Amino acid sequence: MLSKIIPIKYEWDVVKIRSKVREVTKDLGFDELEQSRIVQSVSELARNVVHHAEEGVVLVEEVHEGDQKGIRIVVQDFGPGIEDLDQVIKRSESPASTEGYGLRQVRELMDDFTIRAVEGKGTCVEVRKWLDVSTVESEE
After folding, report:
1. Is the pTM of this model over 0.90?
2. Where is the Histidine kinase/HSP90-like ATPase domain (predicted)?
C-alpha cells in the first residue's frame, strides 16, 4: 500500500506536495478532473499550514474500505491551532463569508472531510476521495 509523509514549512513545499499528490492520484487511476480536485484541495490545506502555522506534515496514502479504493490525505500542522473551530466552520458554510472559504472549497471537492484543532498544539485535517469504480471498469 502506497504511503508518503511530506514535511511542509515553506511556500515551495506546496509545489512539491502538489506534484507528489498528482503522481499518486494518477497511479491510483483517478481521471484528470479528479486529480485536479484532489491537488487543489491539498494545495489549499498546505498553504494554510505555511500561512497560519509555519510548519507541519502531509500524509498521503492509498486506502481501501470494503470494495472501495481511494486516497487519504492528512494535513497536520504544529501551529497555534484554531481558537474557535466551531465558529470558523460555521462561517465557512456561509456563502457570504470569505473566512474559511478554503475549508469550504476542500469540503466540496473531497468525499470525506474531518478537522480537529487543539489550541496551542495545532490543527489536523483529514480528507478522502474515493475512486469511481464504474469509471475504472469502463476504461478497462
Report:
1. no
2. 33-133
